[in-house]
């Protein structure tokens, strides 16, 4: 079997277009322009690229983009003050603090200060709690994007399928498991202490790898025909020593020989993250205005 490749880049482009159409209607019918504020602390080169892309894609969708930068050695209080000001700003519907933060800052404390209604990352405990109890809230972008890609391949009815999520982070693994549970999948969350992970992975109709270990999931971990979603983004040295290349948590060629559907890295889950951020910002703006939240 050779898996069908899930083109996250194309799917994300379609989602951004649908968001832009809703944004245009919101402006025409209600004079409302959603606004997204992104706060970047420090000099991490990858974060700078992600934040620039977020700004460009926000504007391309017809929304207002506000960007704030703080130096690497800024005190935590400066970031907390910025978040408090954005909470109070009526032009801002979504707030995102780019992670990772410098070591002297406590990400949990910063996220805790974000107004949950503006927490377009869906990382606040209020939004995590809403997801856990099945209430409407803001869902973290990467797992939301993964679910959209899974649904696109398997249809809306995932009930009864076995899903294995490798990784238990608050940002991806746990919300991914909650989303699949909400779809009535039978969900197992695996982690570094899981016994016989290859056998567990082989039981999965849906296998999500979000562990941060380059090419850890081998071909013989994959059930024939499974949907394999690779959230990993790992830079490893090229074989000829001429720089680095990006690989996922899945050994792509091996897994693609067995799976039914598989996301590549790059071009799979990654582009969905920013597209879902735009969708969450639209959702937050509609919710605050008391307007129906569009189905995307
Ligand atoms: N506050 C947040 N911080 C971070 C998040 C997040 O969702 N919220 N996620 C990541 C970074 N990230 C967005 O912020 C992000 C990462 C990767 C991509 C992407 O499109 N990746 C491409 C490859 C890019 C490359 O070549 O390096 C792909 O996979 O095709 C988008 C967004 C951590 N921080």
Automatic annotation (TrEMBL):
Biological process annotations from GO: L-histidine biosynthetic process; methionine biosynthetic process; purine nucleotide biosynthetic process; tetrahydrofolate interconversion
Function: Catalyzes the oxidation of 5,10-methylenetetrahydrofolate to 5,10-methenyltetrahydrofolate and then the hydrolysis of 5,10-methenyltetrahydrofolate to 10-formyltetrahydrofolate.
Protein name per UniProt: Bifunctional protein FolD
Domain Tetrahydrofolate dehydrogenase/cyclohydrolase catalytic: 6-121
Catalytic activity: (6R)-5,10-methenyltetrahydrofolate + H2O = (6R)-10-formyltetrahydrofolate + H(+); (6R)-5,10-methylene-5,6,7,8-tetrahydrofolate + NADP(+) = (6R)-5,10-methenyltetrahydrofolate + NADPH
Species: Zavarzinia compransoris
Keyword line: Amino-acid biosynthesis, Histidine biosynthesis, Hydrolase, Methionine biosynthesis, Multifunctional enzyme, NADP, One-carbon metabolism, Oxidoreductase, Purine biosynthesis
GO molecular function: methenyltetrahydrofolate cyclohydrolase activity; methylenetetrahydrofolate dehydrogenase (NADP+) activity
InterPro entries: Aminoacid_DH-like_N_sf, NAD(P)-bd_dom_sf, THF_DH/CycHdrlase, THF_DH/CycHdrlase_cat_dom, THF_DH/CycHdrlase_CS, THF_DH/CycHdrlase_NAD-bd_dom
EC id: 1.5.1.5, 3.5.4.9
GO cellular component: cytosol
Residue ranges annotated for the Tetrahydrofolate dehydrogenase/cyclohydrolase NAD(P)-binding domain, each copy included: 140-287
UniProt xrefs under HAMAP family: THF_DHG_CYH
Family: Belongs to the tetrahydrofolate dehydrogenase/cyclohydrolase family.
Subunit structure: Homodimer.
Record-listed NADP(+) binding positions: 167-169
UniProt keyword Zinc-finger, yes or no: no
Annotated pathway: One-carbon metabolism; tetrahydrofolate interconversion
Gene3D superfamilies membership: Leucine Dehydrogenase, chain A, domain 1, NAD(P)-binding Rossmann-like Domain
